[in-house]
Amino acid sequence: MKFLKELKFSGSRIKDIPSSIGSLTLLENLDLSNCALVGKLLDIFGDMGHLRNLDLCGTMIKELSNSIVSLESLEILKLRDCTKLEKFPKMHENMKCLKELSLTGARIKKLPNNIWGWGALRGCSGDYGGYETFENPSLRGNSITEV
Can you give the pTM of this predicted structure? Predict the structure, then answer.
């Protein structure tokens, strides 16, 4: 099981993620979309250094865990229709691989000031602060990639 690369719980009634999921160190894709997840997504990501795609669309999470910043290989973060999610965590430069961020339907009022310091981020879709979609100003002329 430790060699598992993809795990899909999409549409399941799972309400909590077991902490043992953090032992799946080679996991690349985790799909928790439309699960019954509520509250705070616990600090389960500590050893998941290969995770590239995290889909939390349609869950009822209110807060992302601080351990999400340890996901150095994360390229795609989907938070579309997380209607209870109001706060986006303070991210750090180690999110250097994040390319796509989907926040449409989330209630996030403000994104971190250093969002474009995350290196590879090309575009962000959402409906916060009056913006539908915006792109990294340092990539003018490139197309936005939406999740």
Answer: 0.81
